[in-house]
From TrEMBL:
Annotated metabolic or biological route of this protein: Amino-acid metabolism; lysine degradation; Amino-acid metabolism; tryptophan metabolism
One Pfam family, short name: Acyl-CoA_dh_M
Cofactor names: FAD
Chain ranges of the Acyl-CoA dehydrogenase/oxidase N-terminal domain: 17-130
Family affiliation: Belongs to the acyl-CoA dehydrogenase family.
Ranges for domain Acyl-CoA oxidase/dehydrogenase middle: 134-224
InterPro entries: Acyl-CoA_DH_CS (IPR006089), Acyl-CoA_Oxase/DH_mid-dom (IPR006091), Acyl-CoA_Oxase/DH_mid-dom_sf (IPR046373), AcylCo_DH-like_C (IPR036250), AcylCo_DH/oxidase_C (IPR009075), AcylCoA_DH/ox_N (IPR013786), AcylCoA_DH/ox_N_sf (IPR037069), AcylCoA_DH/oxidase_NM_dom_sf (IPR009100)
Natural source organism: Marinactinospora rubrisoli
Reactions it catalyzes: glutaryl-CoA + oxidized [electron-transfer flavoprotein] + 2 H(+) = (2E)-butenoyl-CoA + reduced [electron-transfer flavoprotein] + CO2
Protein name: glutaryl-CoA dehydrogenase (ETF)
EC numbers on record: 1.3.8.6
Transmembrane segments: none
Domain Acyl-CoA dehydrogenase/oxidase C-terminal: 237-383
Amino acid sequence: PAVPAPDDFLAVDAALTAEETAIRDTVRDFAARELLPGVADWFDAGTIPDPRALAKAFGELGLFGMHLSGYGCAGASATAYGVACRELEAVDSGLRSFVSVQGSLAMAAIHKYGSEEQKTSWLPRMAAGEVIGCFGLTEPDSGSDPGSMRTRARRDGSDWILDGTKMWITNGSVADVAVVWAATDDGIRGFLVPTDAPGFTANTVHRKLSLRASITSELVLDGVRLPGTALLPGATGLGAPLSCLNEARFGIVWGVVGAARTCYLAALDYAGTRVQFGRPIAGFQLTQRKLADMVVDVNQAGLTAARLGRLKDAGQCHHTQVSFGKFANVAAAQRVAAAARSIHGANGITLEYPVLRHLLNLETVATYEGTEEVHALSIGQAVTGLSAFR
Ligand code: FAD
């Protein structure tokens, strides 16, 4: 056999179907052509310049709700969706987050828990990228413990009145519809809130040092009146938003493999050309140790993602296995990005190279969709039978 390829050392992609390979190549080409040239400037500016155009482009590629079926969604395999996330996050975690929030959080909530009317009215437009959605679960005082949320929804005749504040909501300021989770007398329920509803405001969070090529917002709901049809009828209790998070985490398991791969390949390239003490730094044993650790991390993470993809395609993926993947792969990507940054020396702290941008993004990726600690506790509970959450 030939020497393995540096970026796919265990030949994981050889197990992709022809359709999955075609999706990989399409997304990779699009990302290289349309996203990579601008991403450092977007990160520098702390925004995505034209989120509507980006949504349209992602919609045309079939990325939104890619593995959902019907209602204008592509109906691809979970593995295909994962591969697409990997190729997007190879450019930037913020761009993969755009797709995760739209498809795996907002659309998945409607697809799983919406009425037939809600599905037909929202999903095709969201799949096409004509309508942008966001997902409001976190609050200023309620993060890892979403059951402590203070946002309330109360009945007024057949209407609902929503009051509360959501925080750290991706795409909140550019969304047309917000999936908002609120406590009611019957437990936690989900609502589809048009963002032009009176009493709804979204304020963009500034001065972030991570996920800068992504819009993050505070949502304020001040007596927002909604018709009874705004309630997601199938979503009762905290399990509903948590099951959506599980969908998005699956994309993260794959996505961070892309971020790690980019950092590793950048380091490999840099180490091969940067000469100190009369030879390329790639020739020093300490650098080779870093590169060996990186290639192991990138490819083991890739294998984990591929295995979870096949389990999910078979309908056999337990949420604690997704926790395993998020926990293991985000940490692996953080190690790789940190090592890649060190190999780049001073150049590594600039936006001329992708490494610190990815490392900073991964701080968010390790935090959202369940922190590293929360997933450690989830795995700990799965293997011991004992909950250490509270
Ligand atoms: P906390 O829950 O306050 O945690 C603080 C620390 O305490 C962490 O280290 C945590 O692990 C630890 N901790 C908490 N509980 C325990 C425990 N039982 N045992 C041990 N340690 C514990 N949310 C949304 O709803 N929608 C979005 O679109 C969205 N997008 C985001 C985008 C960005 C850029 C960021 C940064 C966040 C986003 N979030 C979003 C919010 C994210 O999901 C929360 O930040 C996350 O759930 C953690 O909550 P927290 O920040 O309140 O931290």
